[in-house]
Amino acid sequence: MKNKELKILLSAPRGFCAGVERAIEIVEKSIQKYGAPVYVRHEIVHNKFVVDDLKSKGAIFVEELEEIEDKSRPVVFSAHGVPKKIPEDARGYNMTYVDATCPLVSKVHREAENLHKAGYHLILIGHQNHPEVIGTMGQLPHGSIDLIQNEEEAKKYNTKNKKISYVTQTTLSVDDTKDIIKILKNKFPNIKEPAKDDICYATTNRQMAVKNIAKKCDLFFVIGSRNSSNSVRLVEVAKKSGCSNSQLIHSQSEIPFDLIENSNTIGISSGASAPEILVDNFINELKNRFTVSIDEVEIIKENVIFKVPKKLN
Q1: Is residue 86 in some structural domain?
Q2: Model confidence at 1, in pLDDT bands (50, 70, 90)?
Q3: Which of 74, 99, 124 is the last residue of a domain?
Q4: Secondary structure of 250-280 in HEC code, one letter for each residue
Q5: Which residue in the list 63, 64, 132, 302 is annotated as catalytic?
Q6: pLDDT digits 0-9 by tens, 160-216
Q7: 132 catalytic per annotation
Q8: CATH (domain of 108)
Q9: Cis amide leading into 13 (omega within 30)
Q10: Is the pLDDT of residue 241 over 90?
């Protein structure tokens, strides 16, 4: 029996962004420079494969600095950014630390601080408990920044402050964020917006690439972790853009071969913290069962590179 023919539309750009590449390189270079173990506060990026690989090289992951038994060892802060208090605590412990916060997240931190200094009350559009949101809110004194997660919350939001401004998490859905901002601008005509969009180039590009092909697909798969905000957003974007049967493939996922069997065209993308090997492995699983043709659909070339801190070179 001839294998079923399956067309794969491979979304590009996909996978690692410059901030993720830099963060992983920082952990690897820290291990080379300081020897193992090097501690990492919070998952360096939200991907089990990456975390396990770094563990095998000598990284130990913790959620809080208090958990680090040997405070003479260096600690790396994750790409998502940390509240101001964390580097202060590290200095208090006399620890060596390396900050792997993505430069685009650091830009939002600086923006928030400058607005606060200029007398603005801040709104952060983002998802509660996401480490990036905790980090951004932790740049400012308690009570000077409020979180809005969705359109409902935007409609209900009220403040007595005359000067208000907003910043956003870097990994949000571009479209959902637009809708929230529209509500805020209607409510507060004088609200100050960021000089440049906070949603990062990689999030925007990956969402545009998915939008571009989703409507041509019977099924859409995003390779990424469940706690990866940008990966989960890509699934939502694929659904909204015309492929209602879209799902996340994470480390515990079973590949739904029965659904694939009934499809002619499937779309594949991957989140900004998912290594390309996971996409290759997924495609190889499909090649074992189907006659596969792959069409990579690229909408934009990415050439962003972020340098690692000088002290690691």
Answers
A1: yes
A2: very low
A3: 99
A4: CCCCCCCHHHHHCCCEEEEEECCCCCHHHHH
A5: 132
A6: 999 999 999 999 999 999 999 999 999 999 999 998 889 999 999 999 999 999 999
A7: yes
A8: 3.40.1010.20
A9: yes
A10: yes
